[in-house]
From TrEMBL:
Highest taxon listed in the record's lineage: Bacteria
Organism: Psychroflexus sediminis
Subcellular location, principal: membrane
Keyword set, alphabetical order: Cell outer membrane, Coiled coil, Ion transport, Membrane, Porin, Signal, Transmembrane, Transmembrane beta strand, Transport
Membrane topology per record: Multi-pass membrane protein
Stretch forming the signal peptide: 1-20
Protein name in the entry: OmpA-OmpF porin, OOP family
A Pfam family assignment: OMP_b-brl
GO biological process: one example: monoatomic ion transport
Coiled coil regions, renumbered to chain: 227-254
Length: 429
């Protein structure tokens, strides 16, 4: 049983690890670069036996390379180097031997392999090694004048880098080249010695790496370490979670999340469909629930005459005409406050009880805003109440509406007082 449990745990851990790695997206990067270098070189061997001879580490060398990275850790490059080796036998004439090499090498990005990106974004280190050819051309004043030969070589070196920008970096290259089976010596004689490496050249150059490609960074500087990718993935998931939390908010409290809500400002308390839209089956612009709340109050004329007169229906007309029955609105809105439906209901009941009664609806706005805008707003408010009353079954010929514009009878600086004048009043005839 313990073995099964342990095996299950190991398989689960492996699955989670695989899932995490698949979920992390590596950063794209550029792969191609041109490497330029200028520096010094020294060809130290071979020389003829028993002939005192010297070379100096001051010969000017030119280096050019093209590099392609297969990934952010390994790649290859083709490069060439040229210099003239200044050398002389003791008490002899100075000779300038031309030396050229061309090599194909593998490249290892030690910076990414050793985790440099965890502590620096400016310094990097490359290692390169490979094989190629070396050509040696002797000068006219050598013992073997104007002769040349080409040999197989092996080389290796390191290249520290300092990043200047995403497109440029300073490089310093230190390399050693060994040639096989070299017959000509630097002083122009045949080499009678037998060695694994008959020739040895050391170079030190400094120059510029130029990066090409459509992406932001080159493979030399990209950080695709598991730690970095994991951190990026965590940040991405946190952003996604925050977005989900924002989407799931329900601003108008209608039970439908904002990201699904096609009607984000639904009247409070009104039933909605799965898209957050007020249910309006007859498509008259008035939510069915508002209509239903009024329809529950519908009565016959006989019942009204027998019941509502005694209950105070006759008091509706004087109250309305004395501006005691009003429908109120929110700031800059034509949607009646939910509690104002009772005022509409009183008017409807009165007009049902009195088939010959007529009503004039007058809308008002507070003093905030443009006068012409407020005049239009007051008329729209009256029209909204007009539509609701008609929806209850009152004939449109018995109703009229108009905009009364701004009601300046209250203190403009009092928010509560302004609430009172944002209204529609009734005049019953």
């Amino acid at each position: 049983m313990k073995k099964i449990t342990l095996l299950t745990f190991i398989l689960s851990a492996f699955s989670l690890s695989s899932y995490a790695q698949e979920g992390m997206t590596t950063q794209d990067y550029n792969k191609f670069s041109i490497d330029l270098g200028l520096g010094v070189a020294k060809a130290s061997t071979p020389v003829s036996e028993n002939i005192p001879f010297y070379t100096v580490m001051e010969d000017l060398a030119f280096e050019l390379g093209a590099r392609y990275m297969l990934n952010d850790k390994f790649g290859f490059k083709v490069s060439g180097l040229y210099f003239e080796s200044t050398n002389a036998a003791v008490n002899g004439p100075e000779r300038n031997t031309e030396i050229f090499r061309a090599n194909l090498e593998g490249v290892a990005n030690l910076g990414n392999l050793l985790g440099f990106r965890e502590f620096t974004q400016r310094f990097n280190l490359l290692f390169h090694a490979g094989a190629g050819i070396t050509n040696i051309g002797l000068p006219a004043n050598a013992a073997a004048a104007n002769q040349s030969e080409t040999n197989l070589n092996f080389m290796g070196g390191i290249t520290p880098q300092i990043k200047l920008s995403d497109r440029f970096a300073i490089n310093v290259d230190l390399s050693v080249i060994g040639t096989l089976d070299q017959n000509l010596t630097l002083d122009g004689f045949n080499n009678g010695q037998t060695q694994n490496f008959d020739g040895m050249i050391a170079t030190a150059t400094a120059g510029l790496s130029i990066y090409f490609g459509d992406h932001e960074r080159h493979a030399d500087w990209v950080d695709n370490s598991p730690k970095k990718l994991f951190g990026d993935r965590v940040a991405e998931l946190e952003n996604e979670l925050a977005q989900i939390q924002r989407d799931l908010q329900d601003t108008d409290k209608d039970g439908v999340a904002d990201y699904l809500d096609r009607e984000p400002n639904t009247t409070s308390g009104v039933a909605v469909n799965t898209k957050g839209e007020s249910i309006d089956r007859n498509q008259n612009g008035i939510p069915d629930e508002l209509e239903q709340s009024l329809e529950k109050m519908y009565v016959t004329k006989e019942y009204a005459e027998e019941t509502y007169y005694a209950a105070g229906v006759e008091g509706v007309k004087p109250d309305a005409n004395d501006d005691l029955i009003n429908v109120y609105f929110r700031f800059d809105s034509t949607q009646p406050e939910y509690y104002s439906l009772d005022a509409i209901n009183q008017i409807v009941k009165y007009m049902r009880a009195h088939p010959d009664a007529e009503a004039v609806l007058t809308g008002y706005a507070d003093q905030i805003g443009n006068t012409e805008y407020n005049r239009k707003l007051s008329e729209d408010r009256a029209k909204k109440v007009y539509d609701i009353v008609i929806a209850t079954g009152i004939d449109a010929s018995r109703l009229s509406y108009k905009g009364g514009g701004v009601d300046s009878s209250v203190d403009k600086d009092s928010e509560e007082a302004r609430q009172i004048v944002r209204r529609v009043s009734f005049e019953l005839k």
